[in-house]
Here is the input.
Amino acid sequence: MDKDKLSERKERILKAVVDEYIKSASPVSSGEIQQKHFNEISSATIRSEMSALEDMGYLIQPHTSAGRIPSKKAYKLYVDKFMVKLPLRRKEIELINASFKSRFDGIEEIVKRAAKVISDVTNYTSVIVLSNINRVKIKRIKLVDLDSRSALVIIITDSGIIRDKIITLSATINPIYIEDANNLLNKIFEGKTVAEIKQADEIINTELKDFKELYENIVAILLSYEEDKNSSVIIEGASKMLDHPEYDLDTTRNILSVIDKKERIAELIEENQDIEFTVRIGKDEALDKCAIVTAKYKINGKEIGHAGVIGPERMDYSKVVSVLNYVGKTLEEISHGGKDDKYDKLK
Amino acid sequence: MDKDKLSERKERILKAVVDEYIKSASPVSSGEIQQKHFNEISSATIRSEMSALEDMGYLIQPHTSAGRIPSKKAYKLYVDKFMVKLPLRRKEIELINASFKSRFDGIEEIVKRAAKVISDVTNYTSVIVLSNINRVKIKRIKLVDLDSRSALVIIITDSGIIRDKIITLSATINPIYIEDANNLLNKIFEGKTVAEIKQADEIINTELKDFKELYENIVAILLSYEEDKNSSVIIEGASKMLDHPEYDLDTTRNILSVIDKKERIAELIEENQDIEFTVRIGKDEALDKCAIVTAKYKINGKEIGHAGVIGPERMDYSKVVSVLNYVGKTLEEISHGGKDDKYDKLK
DNA sequence: TGTTAGCAGTCATAATCTTAGAGTGCTAAA
DNA sequence: TTTAGCACTCTAAGATTATGACTGCTAACA
Here is the structure.
């Protein structure tokens, strides 16, 4: 369409309407816009401009005698064109930095903190989905004896995520067994992705001999990570969903029940994996009235997952994007200063 | 008081009122009680009995022309005297059992599953608070090298909880260092509680020599567990709080914000540590309108934490207690069949 | 041609009033 | 002690009215 070219004045008015609506959550009238943003022209003029914007699909009138609210189309334009990355306040920056000062955290704990601080600073619900272990390479596997029949398997991925599980074997475990096993395991698993391991299943079987049970246990562990999305989804501040005046009890209930089903949220957050930043508005049945802003997070240059913020369509996109951005950068810095990427110096 | 002795009929009527109110969430009238529970006597008689029960503080009339609802006092009596542990349904038992079939879970994952299934079966919000590591004995500490400057510290407690953290040291780590360190660490930490370690701080300092930095790191890790209650509190089904008709939006918001602050919930759940089962009704400012049922959970005979269910005062106590009970028993059984308590067979 | 003041028309929201009926308390009789 | 009967109370729901916030349109003006 050609009509989609907005005059500069229309753009300014539209931006003003979105800004006001983000603040007030109630329909914006021509008078309000005139008072707060356009002292130079009359409300009648603004009225006719807004009427035109409505015809173009950018504004919606809930009823004849109400002001207007932005449409999804308006939000999209707003995000693309008008949104500025405003610098965070000193207090907010301090809060974020303070969250990451602890030295001892593994990646999963860092990520939990990230989720918490994103939610705290933005005042929206935040979600972090850790990358599927399927696509991640195994850097090293380590077996540690616990007692004569059980051992701890430690899996270190190239993104630095460390997971461990206890396994129980029918064979007796002694130091020699552990050493042999460790050598063999690393030979088999090092540098492979879970997907590759699944395929290689048959071929390897011959090499294994005494370690067949162990091998099968470890593969089962890897597969179990794949299955349960649950444990790789971190949600913080879900109760903040109650603070948005545009949602009635029913809507809130629906939204929260979707969020509770972590699988669905994981899919939504992980969509568009190749784009650095996404804003999605009302894409899902129950999340019809929600906007989701997502970002890809890296540590050590490796993607570790996606972070998302869920809120009403009229969310404070500028702030959310700024916070996601700053937290993302902070995460990358942590990895530089903290533990480094030298696992491969050992064999 | 002497008046507190209820006649048998009063007791039966009171129980009937509580039962009905649990079902319907709306004031119970004398007629309703007469129809459903007391065909032999008239509603007028029940009316006068209910009036007496009101005088005694067991029932409350929201307004003159309404039925009556139970008071906190009534709920307490109900829980103490009338509640029966009804057997769970086959479906519910199957659901619970299915949650625990996986072989590979460490204690924390088992506990997460427990929280989830408790919430799913009862339809209330569930909370599990893992025992403060302070009171738990350290069974063994293990150091595993990751690269030349960092290592993984694995802490095994006598209740079988395993935690690990990465530490980075200024000294270079080699196999000999690791072995020496492991020996020393176990000499120092084995069988001690965190509280004891804090006190022993000075005395040990002399023995340490080259391992001082390592020691301090590990103590710092132990202390950090003590600090953040956050990571030892698991909440499931918080959104179910929205399903209770007696809560308006504001009340729900308050309750959920208390639940979000995990520290406060942890305190509530951990109160009365010596009692096997507790029902607490409206003990807290924001949780004034809530009841909390808690149980102590053990694995391998060692207390691992407390589980709690949070809901409205009129919650289905029978069911909640039954579920908590059954899940508790299941947990104890897991530990018998699964990995056993033989860590001490190694030195 | 774009802008503006003025004014009638619309419609939601709030306030007020009305009504229906659910449930009680009391009384008097069994 | 129990019960039927009835007057009384009070909420919840529905109907009615009033208010006022906005708009859209028109006509005049730059």
Remarks:
- Chain B touches chain A through 50 residues (CB under 8 Å).
- The longest strand of chain B covers residues 302-312.
- Chain B has twelve helices and ten strands.
